[in-house]
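Troubleshooting: if your tokenizer reports a length mismatch, compare your output against this known-good record of 121 residues.
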Amino acid sequence: MSSGGNSNLHEKKGIRAEAKNILVTAGSQEAIELLARVLLDPGDIVYVENPTYLGALQSFNVYSPELIGVKKIILSLAKLVEDNPEISSVDINPIFVYEDRCVAIDVKILLAHDYHGLKKH
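Known-good structure output:
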């Protein structure tokens, strides 16, 4: 990277970063491994898609987290709402890491307690 540093990143992606704050990896697997090394402690909970990228699971498993698949998350969310009728909305902001990209999703679920005459139990 030239001493001009981040001008290319800023022009193309709108990212402002100093050269000292940029880490170039050989690929997504190395990036996932580095993030797992820095962020995970044994017993941490990691939510993953089900199915998910095998390389991510291999990187995570080294640090002994509890892996929870998205299907289980959806069932847990349904139980949370059922057990807590005072909840009126749920805001979810997952980041999905794939071999070639990351995707951030912003979802807000509004719960209708009385939708066209149907009452929530």
